[in-house]
Amino acid sequence: MTPGAPVIDGLTIADVPRCAELEMQMFAGDSPWPQAAFRAEMNAPYNTYFAARDAIGEQAMGYAGISMLGGPGAYESEIHTIAVDPDRRGRGYGLALLRAMLAVADDADAPVFLEVRTDNHTAISLYERHGFATAGIRRGYYQPSGADAYTMVRPARTRTEQTQEAPR
Predict the structure, then answer these.
(1) Class for domain 7-164, per CATH?
(2) E-strand stretches of the chain
(3) Each residue of 89-99: pLDDT tens digit?
(4) CA 133 to CA 127: how far, in whole Å?
(5) What residues does each domain of the chain span?
(6) Of 18, 36, 94, 156, which has the most beta carbons under 10 Å away?
(7) Backbone angles phi, psi at 160, to 5 degrees
(8) What pTM does this model have?
């Protein structure tokens, strides 16, 4: 059975074991998050975490998290993580998760920051298509592999820009 469009909803404590499993599968060489890290991040009041599922009530096939920092008129947001089960890549799961996080930032008129491996061309392309630009490089950012990361930023979107942005 080929999955359809992903369902995006809130990540729950019940999803934590699946997320930690995906972390081990995808990021084994770069300190994958354990279950405790997911629980701590989900409990922080300034963070919002999403799950991508094949259907309502099914296990997470991807997850993403964004934090909102600052205060009214001076918010900034940072994408902490975005990951998709390798069997679901190229099917819109990452795009759907990114859009959910960008909506959080747009609701607060906040710029969005993130780090991405310099060799993750698929993710970099997705981010660039959604208004991100490279702002710098962090040498040896990912540990223990020592892989470099680009810091990317997308400026805050005005309400006009949000409504004019074409779906992709």
Answers:
(1) alpha beta
(2) 7-10, 47-53, 60-69, 76-84, 112-117, 133-142, 147-154
(3) 889 999 999 99
(4) 8
(5) 7-164
(6) 94
(7) -65, -45
(8) 0.89
